[in-house]
Amino acid sequence: MISSSKLNQYWTDIYFHLHYPHGEKITHQVVRILQLIDKKDRVVVNDVATHLEISHNTASEHVKRMINKNYIEKKRDQNDERKVILQLTDFGKNVLHENTSLDEEKLNHIFSDMDEVEKELISKAFKLLSERAKSCM
Predict the structure, then answer these.
(1) Which of 29, 72, 80, 129 has the most CB within a 10 Å radius?
(2) Share of the chain above pLDDT 90, in %
(3) Which part of the chain is the HTH marR-type domain (predicted)?
(4) Residue 104 to residues 12, 108, 109, 129: CA-CA distances in angstroms?
């Protein structure tokens, strides 16, 4: 049986060896905000404050800086014009991908040395873990 500490060790090894080289230098908080906007529907500034456990004013300042860097943009909610929804720009999506995803070229190289059973096993394990992770929020 795998322990959570062993799984964390495996994950950090995987990420350390297979992440993209970081081009755009961003903070961990910016990454977390980009992930929040990417993974949730209709994120507003108050959601950022709640997610990061910071004040609304601090969250608003983070959002302003991220808009200035073209990572995100504001859009009026079509259902409620009073609400301003945060969305990733194409550049923001790219920055998020490069700072949180595994390098697909490196992955493809690893997968090329695996047989179909190994690939399927990894795929099923990651899919199951992903599905269960989504139910924790």
Answers:
(1) 72
(2) 86
(3) 1-131
(4) 17, 6, 8, 20
User: What is the pLDDT, as a whole number, of residue 54?
Assistant: 97
* Residue 2: Cβ-neighbour burial (10 angstroms; 0-12, 13-18, 19+): exposed
* Domains of the chain: residue spans and CATH: 1-19+103-137 (no CATH), 22-101 (1.10.10.10)
pTM attached to this predicted model? 0.87
